[in-house]
Structure formats: structure tokens, C-alpha cells
Specification:
5 helices, 3 strands, 149 residues, alpha+beta
Amino acid sequence: VGDNRDKLTTQFQRSWQQQEAQLATLDAEFIAAVIEQEDFNAMYYDPLTLLPRKAFYGKLLKMLEGKPLALVLTSADLDNFKLLNDCWSHAHGDSAIMQAADCIYEHCEAFNAGQSDVVCVPFRFGGDEFVMAFISHEGADFKQIKDLS
């Protein structure tokens, strides 16, 4: 149907509107969860994905400063994401970002569970951009990073 929603069935249009309404309430639900957890600093976490955001990356760099640790970064984004936002809706784009973030988080957690000397920390850098920071002792072999893919 391209960008013409009028071509959708009435039932699908209602379903679409319900999905957009549910996605619009996510920020309010996130804020309520943050208020309940006083030790959770919302400044460091993305409200859409709940992954750490750029501000946390800056904090991480300061925490690593002067320590004998190595840092390797890898980045990813969603292919043709603008097309999704332009032809469907921003709510559907948000849904795609949340699904990608969930997948990235699950893979990082699985990677961390199988490692003893490298830790993977996923970040949402903005829009559809994600970064994974791999942290280990200086001189560590980072060949196991390919296991994450």
C-alpha cells in the first residue's frame, strides 16, 4: 500500500491506530518505572529501548580512564530505516527500534554469559544507531567478539 493508509482494510487501520496508541504510552510507562526505582538514573538510559544511551557511554569512558583495560567498539544501524518511517509511521519505526534493541541486548547477554574476560555493553546512540562496547583487560584477545554475530 506504500504510504497510502486508505488502501488498508478498516480492521487493519483500527489495529494500526491501537498499536500507535500503545507505542505513544511507552514513555509514560518508562517514567513511572523510573520513579519506582530511585537508584535508576534515567539520564543514562534511553526511554524507548531501555538500553544505555550516549551519556552512559561518556560515563563509561570516565570509569575506564587510567585503568589497564582495553575497549573495542562496534556499531550497527537498521538498513533502510528512513523508508520505514516515511512510508509507514514513526510508531512503526519505534517498534522496529525496540525489536532491534531487544535482539541486541539478548545477544550481548548471551555473549557475556559465555565469557570470563570480555564484557559487552550495548548502547543506543540515537535514531536507529546502536553501538556495542567490548571491555577487557589490556592485551586481551578480542577474537571471541565475532561470536556475538
